[in-house]
Every structure is written in structure tokens, then in C-alpha cells.
Amino acid sequence: MIKLIAFDAGWVLFRPKNWELLHEKGFTDDEGYWLFREGLGRTSDWIRYQLKQGKTSRQIIKILQQYYPEYSDLLVRIRPYLRRLIEEDLVSNIQLGYRLQEAGYQVEIWSDNGLGGPQRGVDYQDSEIGLIPKFGPDHPLYKKYPTVHTELKVRSFYSNDLCVLKKDSEFFKKVLRAHPKIKPSEMIFIEDRPKNIISAQSVGIECIQFVMSGIKWNRERVAGVPVAHTTEELKQRLRLKGVSLLDSSTSKLLYNYAPKEVDVLKTGLWAPALASRDALAHYFGRAKTKTKKGVLAYLETIFPGRTRAISFLTSPMTKKCCFYDDFKKDRILYGVDFDKLQKAGLIEAIYRVERKPCKKIAADQILWDERLPWEKVGKGLFFTKIPHYMVVLKDGFVPPEFITRCR
User: Fold this and answer.
1) For the purposes of burial, counting CB atoms within 10 Å of the CB of 260, is it exposed (0-12), middle (13-18) or buried (19 or more)?
2) Domain co-membership, 401 together with 272
3) Same domain, yes or no, for 349 and 370?
4) Peptide bond preceding 357: is omega within 30 degrees of 0, i.e. cis?
5) Looking at the domain assignment, is residue 245 inside a domain?
6) Do both 175 and 299 map to the same domain?
7) pLDDT band at 26, cuts 50/70/90?
8) Residues 290 and 385 both lie in one domain
9) What percent of the residues of the chain are helix, what percent strand, and what percent coil, each to the nearest 5?
């Protein structure tokens, strides 16, 4: 059971949503980094306040130029886009931190930056989120133009306090020693840099890679580590790891157990129409034939499109199922985002399989909260006892981009 969720600070707990906009307008990575880390990142609340008070982008840029004269030309260049850049939340994962705390999880910051100490709570100002000391309450600009603060109380572990960077596993060993009652397997670390993820994994801490396009250190991936590009994707990855969020916008996930020897994240999920003859061997008896053509003809008698259908569950198997250990040893659980699949136009039909014959249903008739009776499953009775859904897919295929590996 997950008890603690830690965020890297810069570009993970707080990050710009409009990085792509700057790339489209011809700004370099270094310019975008300074804007979101300094020019906008540290003044975002103040700029929002001034916009609400009726100040124009030109007036705001002139004030900022007084405090950042060395970036005067850059500030002028962003003036046409200032409102679009600032009206999007620059610290989108802060609200997720609140949600996790409300749900009872311990939330922390593990960062290579920062001004806070490892044994005390840090707040919005001194944990590099929003207005930190350089541009904080003592700054003359802050005093002249009041702003509204939000506080996310967290415990922080910074490399300058632990005297070691996160790329060194000693950083995480020190963090673990500070949590004697929490096992590494009960922690999740959300980080962007691959070398830091590998370091955390070396001591048994699970990770999620939170990445942005355009950032050079975000272009590498760590094998087997789930990736999220947005806050909504991050919520989904957390749910797949067993984290419960007090959030009404829960993603609808369909679950499929695939053999370990198949790299679904590269190949996608295949329906029988795309499978090899050998992969259809378990149908030979029922189809009374050992040819692929004969098996596919038999499957189409079950319901139209059966050869292009893939079987899904609405919740993962529990330990109460007698197959649990076998499935965990031989198969990997994957989640498919139903809403994205539907919006992409890949779903042709849905059948609920509970008893014969299968019943064709509409998308809004899927019972997402249904409790599946895993304890009633006996040897050879998996599909007769557990309600599941056969989803007929365009081309009989779920592309890899719709699939996430679960725990």
C-alpha cells in the first residue's frame, strides 16, 4: 500500500503548461527555461493580480524590466503572449499535492534545488514554488503590488542539506533512513530526469517519469517506468499504482493481462484477426479446426466483429482469485484509457460477457464501479464467473500510445 508520494520540485511539482507555445513562437530552450523558472515562474501570482486589476501587458512588462534589466529584450518579445502564458496555471501539480494530502498520503519534495531544511515543513515561498525570497514578501515590487498566496505544507529533502545529489543513491538512502516506518515499496517518486529515477529505483522506490517536450533532459526514458506528460495523465498513473484520489474526474480504465513475452508498449494489443495461428491454439478445440482461417470463421459466429475484439476487465484481479499468482508470474497488467480510445474513433462495438449469449451494449452501460467476484473463480472457470467486456476495435488493434503498464 502506498503511503508516501514525493515530487521533484522544478518542472515536476511546478511546471509551465505553455512550454509548447514558446517553442511555436521561436523561443529557445534556455529562454523558455528562464521565463518559466524566473521571469514568470517567480512572479506568476503578481502578474495575474495585475491583469485582474486592469493593467495591460505593456505596463506589466515595463515594471518587470526594472527588476530584470538583463532580460529586457526577452520580456518585450513575450509581451504579445503574456496573457496566454500566465492565465494557464504554472504550478498545475500543486493542486494534485493538495488532493493527495486530503486523501491521507504523506506528500514531500525531494529536490536538487531549494532553500528548505530536511527536517522541517516548508511552504509556498521557500520551496521554490511561486514567489520565493528573491521575489518574495520583502521584495519592493511585492510590497507595492499585493498578491494572493497558497500554501502547500510539505516535508522537504534537498540535496544541499543532504550533501549529495539525487543521481547518487546515497541521497535516497538518507531519505529512507528518515522514514523508518515506511518501506521503499510504499513510496512513489515523481521525477523528470532519468538518472535520478534510476538512482531511486536502485533502493527500491517506485517512480513515475513526468516529462515535458523541448527539455533536453526529458528526451530519455527509463525502461519499465510509466510516463506522464500532463497532470491528468499523472493522476491516471498514480491510480494504476493503487493511489486513491479524492477526485470526481477519475479516468475510465480497461484492464488486460498480456503475456510477459509480448512487449505491448511497443506492439500494442492485438485481436485474434492479427494474431498468429499458434496464438489461437486455445480455440482449436471449440472451433474444431487447427487453421487460422477456420478459427476466425468460428469466432465470427459468436458475434459480429469477434475477430477484431479484445477482452477487458473494469478492475484488476485481486488476491482472492485462485489464478492470481499464476497471472502475476506469467502476465503483465496493462490499462487502456477508454475515453481516449473512444474519442479516437477506434471503438466499433462493445459486448458485455457475463453469460451466453453476449449482450451488445452502449458505452455508457459499462459498469465501471462493479465489484467483480474474484473469490468465486475456480480452475477453468475464469470467464464464466467474471463479467468482462469484449471491445470490437477498428483494425482489431489498440495502439501503444493508449496503453499504460500497471503494477
Assistant:
1) exposed
2) yes
3) yes
4) yes
5) no
6) no
7) confident
8) yes
9) 40, 20, 40
95 and 81 together in one domain:
no
For the packed helices 57-67 and 44-52, what is the interaxial angle rounded to 10 degrees? Answer: 150
Residues 213 and 301 in one domain: no
Quote the CA–CA distance of 247 and 245 in Å, as a whole number: 5
Scanning 53-105, the segments in alpha helix (DSSP H) are 57-67, 72-78, 82-87, 92-102
Side-chain half-sphere CA neighbours of 402 within 13 A: 24
Average pLDDT, the chain: 80
147 and 73 together in one domain: no
In this predicted structure, the answer to whether residue 13 has a pLDDT above a threshold of 60 is yes
Query: How far, in Å, CA of 324 to CA of 79, rounded?
Result: 58
Say if pTM beats, i.e. exceeds, 0.70: no
The C-alpha cell that represents 279 in the structure block: 496464438
Contact 95, 25 (CB under 8 A): no
In sequence order, the β-bridge partners of residue 335 are: 255, 404
User: What confidence score (pLDDT) does residue 118 get?
Assistant: 30
Nearest Cα residue to 208 out of 239, 245, 248, 177: 239
Q: Of 58, 87, 116, which closes a domain?
A: 87
In this structure, is residue 374 part of a structural domain? yes
Question: What domain range is 101 assigned to?
Answer: 4-15+90-240
pLDDT band of 134, cuts 50, 70, 90 = very low
The three cell numbers of residue 130 are 511561486
- Same-domain pairing of 83 and 101: no
pLDDT over 70, % of the chain: 78
Q: Would you call 80 helix, strand, or coil by DSSP?
A: helix
- Mean pLDDT computed over 61-86: 88
Q: What is the pLDDT of residues 143-171, one digit of tens each?
A: 433 332 334 567 888 887 788 899 999 99
Q: Does position 90 have pLDDT exceeding 50, yes or no?
A: no
